[in-house]
Amino acid sequence: MKMKSTKHKWVTLVLSGLMAVGLTACGGGGNASAPASSSEKPQEQAASAYPEKPISIIAPSGAGGGLDKTARSLTKILQQTNLVTKTMTVENKPGGGQSVGLADFVTQDTKNSYKLLLPSTPIVINHLKKDGNSPFSHNDMTPLAQLTKDYGAIVVRADSKYKDLQSLFNDLKADPSKFTIAGGSAPGSLDHLTIMMPAVKAGIDPKKIKYISYDGGGEAIAALLGGNADVLATDVSGSGEFVKAGKIRVLAVSSPERLTGLFQETPTYKEAGYDTELVNWRGVFGPKDMSSDAIAFWQDKLKALSQTDEWKQELAANSWDDGYKNADDFKKYLDEQEKMFKDILTQLGMQK
């Protein structure tokens, strides 16, 4: 009986020792962790595959205008710098001072992250005015980035007798019926306001000004050069090549201060005696239901684009000001513009 008791004690001691070793391995002495099983390891987020196919940028205007040029410059530099390696194309969808292109973009392919829209300030204005207004606005899309700042310009042919804005406005005030004003946007929209804002400051009755809208700046400047209009309300960037060619004269620009380069001798509205200014942004939007991968991709690439030498050279070549704003800042700015234009249109009796 004694032998059995001794053997039983020995077995119990061995088993106790093995259990202690097992507990030490699992508990690590209270300091080490047991290796996690494969199911417990944190899973790495899969890399986004976007973009996987060609991308289309829609310019809601005709060929040759500022939006068309900006869209083509954007695609060119994105591919030259290899920021985007997939094929990129530009589609022109003119009509209604950007309203047609905007409506098509907002209502078609609402989840298609391979289509972008490159509009400008009129999409804010058109939503606020009562005549021919658009039911859509920046709130129906995903802002990705503001790219450029441009300014309004009041232009005449190079052979015009008008050398300054004051002499033009004096005659326009005396007899508005003698003048036809051309612009690349609808009445109450950007080009219209480009001349209306200083004209109102000059005491001209806005209801007596004869304004004809064309589908984009390219068609509007052709009307001026072809003798179908006496004055053109347009943007600075769309005027540069015609100034260089000696075909037009810019009487004044809507910038807050004197521009540099080609327009350094051109007075601002304020310098001409009319205390007002107007900034025209151009930016990139995705559809309302754009995928999060696509949003992240474009926010990253457009910020990187704004910092490249190639893009800065493109801005200078087209007389564009760098207006880069990230998505959040762009959205805040759009909301601020909406309030400002609502006030302006109210003054003109053109608000919705």
From TrEMBL:
Q: Does the keyword Signal apply?
A: yes
Q: Which Gene3D superfamilies match?
A: Bordetella uptake gene, domain 1 (3.40.190.150), Periplasmic binding protein-like II (3.40.190.10)
**One Pfam family recorded for the sequence:** TctC
| InterPro entries in the cross-refs | BUG, Bug_dom1
Question: Which keywords does the record carry?
Answer: Signal
Task: State the residue spans of region: Disordered.
Answer: 29-49
- Signal peptide positions are 1-27
Report the superkingdom from the record: Bacteria
Q: Protein name, please?
A: Tripartite tricarboxylate transporter substrate binding protein
Q: Which family does it belong to?
A: Belongs to the UPF0065 (bug) family.
Q: Which SUPFAM superfamilies match?
A: Periplasmic binding protein-like II
Task: Reply yes or no: does the keyword Coiled coil apply.
Answer: no
